[in-house]
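Annotated sample (chain length 142).
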Amino acid sequence: MLITPVHSHVEPIFDGTHVLVVTRSATRPHLLKVSDLQADKRIPIPLDLTDVSGGTFPYNTGALANGHIYLASLSGGKASPLKIYYWDTPTSKPEVIANINIAVFPEQAPVMVITCRSTSTNTVTDLSSSEITSQQKSSDLP
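Output written by the structure step:
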């Protein structure tokens, strides 16, 4: 089954068990079970967004790694923090694992990238404040 984003700001992320849909639309960030999708069912599993706030947008991108969920805010200016949230399970409350005041970094500071490696799907996911990319695991990765 092909999953196509309906909005340009929707980025589905797949880990073999779930699809993470990060969207700022009315459906908000949620998971879909792959087994449901294979049975032609689309049953959103909403993430608990308690205390998810800050940034230009409180959630902008995300990642799945070993059954855990990560979302990052969009930090679009010096007054806007970069926050990264972590969910242990789809029904957990979020934890803030990074709250970064970007105003303390010089203008030419390098982009921070968090890499999540998933052994179950053989993918590497790089999570940064402005983008997320997935690529096939290459032989030179540890």
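Annotation: The helical segments are 34-38.
Annotation: The mean pLDDT is 74.
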